[in-house]
Amino acid sequence: EVQLLDSGGDLVRPGGSLRLSCAASGFTFSIYAMCWVRQAPGKGLEWVSGISDSGAITYYTDSVKGRFTISRDNSKNTLDLQMNSLRAEDTAIYYCVRGGIYGYRSDHWGQGTLVIVSS
Amino acid sequence: DIVMTQSPDSLAVSLGERATISCKSSQSVLYSSTNKNFLAWYQQKPGQPPKLLIYWASTRESGVPARFRGSGSGTDFTLTISSLQAEDVAVYYCHQYFTTPLTFGGGTKVQIK
To answer: DSSP letters of chain B?
Structure first.
């Protein structure tokens, strides 16, 4: 069974940093691209970032470029999102998602981890 | 960026009746070489992550009931729930995975009338 366990969400002050992690199991992690998608409270879905299966190629939505860094460790089956210079508008539930880029549907989602940016 | 526009924002349908949701993309999401539309539909219930219902615009994900049907091509797509059940109350999102940035429609809230 495919499982994605998101973690790392917390309350952080504007300008602060946070690192989210996703532990994957139940599938061959190293052959899938992965993404992060977020959802602000009561709002819709927003794709944040994606990474190729090898980790060599990364993609970001414009609003997080230069502030967020996506990475993965295929030896540990983990996906990370380093978030710096956080803003109030980054407040959201962050979902780890299998697939998404390279024409592969986002077929499995983690339960999400909540990030609150507030003073 | 490809903008995904859903309509309506919400709809109320009687149990057993049909619910229809429209989704339009600002650019075609049809890849001509494979004749596949890179369009998916998701269902999200409160407190849960989105669940994949339909991909390639019309292929049901494993385990999804046959009452969910996706159709359309190019820039115009439809999700139809043929006979609404109580458990179908949720927000539905269309999503293009044709190109980055990946984008989602604004969502359609489906309720029971």
So the answer is: ---EEEE-SEEEE-TTS-EEEEEEESS--EETTTTEE-EEEEEE-TTS--EEEEETTTEEPTT--TTEEEEEETTEEEEEESS--GGG-EEEEEEE-SSSSPEE---EEEEE-
